[in-house]
């Protein structure tokens, strides 16, 4: 069945900065795509209106209405009711907002919510590496570090939809305080802001000539991306910062690999664009910490879905008709 | 259906010291039970003969032959062929011994093998805490530290039957060398020998008057059990040693709890007899490391099957007709 005749679904990724949406079919072929600024400080109603308008515009262009909308959101949701519980990075934190009900009323289609990282894992499982890998561990490396676990093709959610919070695995018990209230979480070392902070420190130390040049001396230009460019250009300090992040990703992964023996560990989110600079030390750490079985059978790779991981995640949620806790 | 008429199964746990076996029905009611020394240094044939004779004796007493035998072994096995791959704690390590085939020829019933800790997890799932908990993480704390993960009622095995090796989660990257070749594995802190070594150190330090008295000054009497007695009697050093083990068990568990949000974390094996001395600090560590959801919903408890965990594990394997990788 071609995409022109197949059932249509909508996938939307609600981020702190952008709303990214698409229409596609159950096989993952995208027909329409849009991205608009979230403008989260305009309030919930404005943001939900913007999501609905985007879906309506895409439906108009496609000449058809989607069967269902899957929405990935940055935080915890009630999977049954489709209410947001806590979106830490949005103003007012969206506590108990009946998002699914509001959007269903306007769009006249089923709306299902899921945490964005879990949605990305579901999307990767349906449309990305999951086509060859039944069991996967996925990290989303962005402003925060999220994750999702797929076992035998099934996303693990747990009773609250909160299983998969592997960005908060402790990798250094006396490490930096994390926004979650714990210390030394993986997130405090490998999130975008964590890498940027290390880059800023490096710039101030005077030991990163390439980074200084790439950022034209401006600390505001320090980011995982410029840090990666400096590492590639030969700054040992920049390389060391990324290698440490990769090693700690490998350390956190090693426990999950021993527990689950997955087919693949997938990296998504902006920081994953560092690619081999991050994956090589991660691989070495895995090899140093996993001796109970040959770990070379476990692949480590960047998401196949790239910047569209969130959108494909929403699409996957819509295609599945939502997910249930447990 | 009463046990007298139900199908009969045999469960055997092959340990380095003892062979422990039982006959029971699919509901976990045991009809016969036996324990004999392994005498592993007499060689594979003698040990396999001893297992077969034990099952035959129990069958004679019961007046019936079991449908199948499930055998838990201390190491890695090929689940399909029923050959042992590597039993590190037995002489000659039993590489590629066709154990299932040998026992099937003699016993005229199906024989299925499984790693002993994974078997214990399956047994706990079928006959112990699993009656209320669908998703569990189980540690077996003995000479080594093994484990098993049950997700939605299904034992996770992975392609080599080696998933669940959570005794080798790294809790201290620069920690003691482990028998597996890595460093700072949980096993190096919470196994029986690890606790005993700390107890011996404590005795030598002169800071454990109760331990000294309980052991009558003899270092050979130091064990997790005497250490637990000394802690209960008020030795702060003995208490500190056990608390550190519990805290590291909690640290290793916290990553799995974040990833899987299980209903329960179960402790089995001899060291688990320390009970609350171990569980209280473990619980505190879990609370300190897991902030993404309320961790008080995750139970921590000793195995319901106690010393029979291995036997029930074998029985569970027999009842299931074996397990498949994946």
- Side-by-side strand order of the widest sheet of chain A: 3-2-1-4-7
Structural class of chain A: alpha/beta
State the share of residues found in helices of chain A, binned by percent. Answer: 25-40%
Please state the second-level CATH architecture of the largest domain in chain A: 2-Layer Sandwich
Instruction: Let me know the number of strands of chain A.
Output: 12
Task: Indicate the mean pLDDT of chain A.
Answer: 95
Radius of gyration of chain A: 20 Å
Coarse shape of chain A: globular
Spans where pLDDT lies below 50 across 5 or more residues of chain A: none
Say what oligomer this is.
homodimer
Distance N to C terminus of chain A: 33 Å
Output the CATH homologous superfamily of the largest domain in chain A.
ATPase, nucleotide binding domain
Describe the structure.
The structure is a homodimer of 326-residue chains. With 326 residues, chain A is an alpha/beta fold. The first copy, chain A, folds into two domains: 9-122 and 308-320, 2-Layer Sandwich (Nucleotidyltransferase, domain 5); 133-303, Nucleotidyltransferase, domain 5. In chain A, 38% of the residues lie in helices and 20% in strands. In chain A, strands 3-2-1-4-7 form a five-stranded mixed β-sheet. Chain A is globular, with a radius of gyration of 20 Å.
């Amino acid at each position: 069945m071609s995409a022109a005749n197949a059932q249509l679904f909508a996938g939307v990724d609600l981020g702190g900065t952008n709303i990214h949406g698409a229409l596609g079919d159950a096989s993952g072929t995208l027909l329409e795509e849009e991205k608009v600024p979230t403008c989260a400080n305009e309030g919930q109603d404005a943001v939900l209106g913007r999501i609905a308008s985007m879906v309506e515009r895409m439906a108009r262009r496609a000449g058809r209405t989607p069967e269902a909308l899957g929405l990935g959101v940055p935080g915890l949701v009630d999977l049954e009711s489709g209410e947001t519980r806590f979106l830490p990075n949005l103003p007012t934190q969206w506590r108990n907002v009946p998002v699914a009900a509001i959007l269903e009323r306007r769009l006249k289609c089923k709306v299902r919510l899921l945490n964005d990282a879990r949605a990305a894992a579901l999307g990767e499982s349906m449309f990305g590496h999951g086509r060859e890998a039944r069991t996967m561990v996925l990290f989303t490396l962005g402003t925060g570090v999220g994750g999702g676990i797929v076992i035998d093709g099934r996303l693990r959610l747990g009773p609250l939809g909160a299983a998969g919070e592997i960005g908060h695995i402790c990798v250094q018990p006396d490490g930096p305080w994390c926004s979650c209230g714990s210390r030394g979480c993986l997130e405090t070392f490998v999130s975008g802001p964590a890498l940027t902070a290390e880059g800023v420190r490096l710039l101030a130390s005077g030991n990163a000539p390439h980074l200084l040049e790439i950022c034209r001396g401006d600390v505001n230009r320090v980011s995982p991306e410029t840090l990666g460019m400096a590492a590639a250009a030969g700054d040992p300090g920049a390389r060391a910062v990324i290698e440490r992040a990769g090693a700690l990703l490998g350390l956190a992964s090693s426990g999950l690999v021993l527990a689950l023996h997955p087919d693949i560990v997938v990296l998504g989110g902006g920081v994953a664009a560092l690619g081999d600079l991050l994956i090589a030390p991660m691989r070495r750490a895995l090899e140093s910490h996993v001796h109970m079985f040959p770990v070379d059978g476990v692949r480590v790779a960047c998401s196949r879905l790239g910047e569209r991981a969130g959108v494909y995640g929403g699409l996957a949620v819509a295609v599945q008709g939502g997910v249930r806790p447990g």
